[in-house]
Design goal:
Structural class: alpha/beta
Distance between the termini: 13 Å
Shape: globular
CATH topology: Rossmann fold
Strand order of the largest sheet: 2-3-1-4-5
Radius of gyration: 15 Å
Largest sheet: 5 strands, parallel
Length: 162
C-alpha cells in the first residue's frame, strides 16, 4: 500500500512520514527530494531557473516513477494544484491539517519556500484548502504531538485494510 501525505508547507509531512514509515516498516519517499535528485537541482533553483509550471511537471513525473511497493510518500505542498495528480496517487491519501500559527513557528527556522516569497501562508492555505480536502481520504490534525498524529494515521490505515 502507498500512503500519501499532503498538506501545507511546514505541516509536518516529512517528519510524520519518516516516523510512520519506520513504524509500518514501509519505505519513506520525500517527493521533493526525489525531484531534486532527478533534476540535479534544489527546488528553489528549479523555480528560479524555470518556473512553477516546470516544477509541477517534474512533480507529476516523480509520482509516475514511484516504485510499486509499500511506501509512505511525503508530497510537496502544491501537489494538489494539478488535479490529474490525484489519479496517480493510487493508495491512501492523508491530509495533514496543521494550524497556520504552528506552521509559521515551524517555518521560522527553515528555508523560505519558493511560493512563500510571493504569497503569504494564509493566501496559499486559502487557495489550497478545498483541494487538500478533495484529494484526501482522511484528514488528520498535526497540531500537538507527532506520535499522536502517527498513531491516528496508523489506526485509519488499519481500518482501510480490514
Amino acid at each position: 500500500m502507498k500512503i500519501f501525505l499532503i498538506g501545507m508547507p511546514g505541516s509536518g509531512k516529512s517528519h510524520v512520514g519518516k516516523i510512520l514509515a519506520e513504524k509500518l516498516k514501509y519505505t519513506f519517499v520525500d517527493l521533493d527530494g526525489m525531484i531534486e535528485k532527478n533534476a540535479l537541482m534544489f527546488i528553489d533553483e528549479i523555480f528560479e531557473k524555470y518556473d512553477e509550471q516546470t516544477f509541477r511537471k517534474l512533480e507529476t513525473e516523480a509520482l509516475q516513477k514511484l516504485p510499486d511497493c509499500d511506501l509512505v510518500v511525503s508530497c510537496g505542498g502544491g501537489i494538489v494544484t494539478v488535479k490529474d495528480n490525484k489519479k496517480l496517487m493510487q493508495g491512501y491519501k492523508v491530509y495533514i491539517d496543521t494550524e497556520i500559527d504552528i506552521i509559521k513557528e515551524r517555518l521560522k527556522e527553515d528555508y523560505v519556500r519558493p511560493l512563500l516569497k510571493k504569497k503569504s501562508l494564509e493566501q496559499l492555505h486559502q487557495e489550497r484548502i478545498l483541494k487538500y480536502i478533495d484529494f484526501a481520504d482522511v484528514i488528520v490534525a498535526n497540531d500537538g504531538q507527532i506520535e499522536q498524529t502517527v498513531q491516528t494515521i496508523i489506526q485509519h490505515v488499519k481500518e482501510v485494510n480490514k
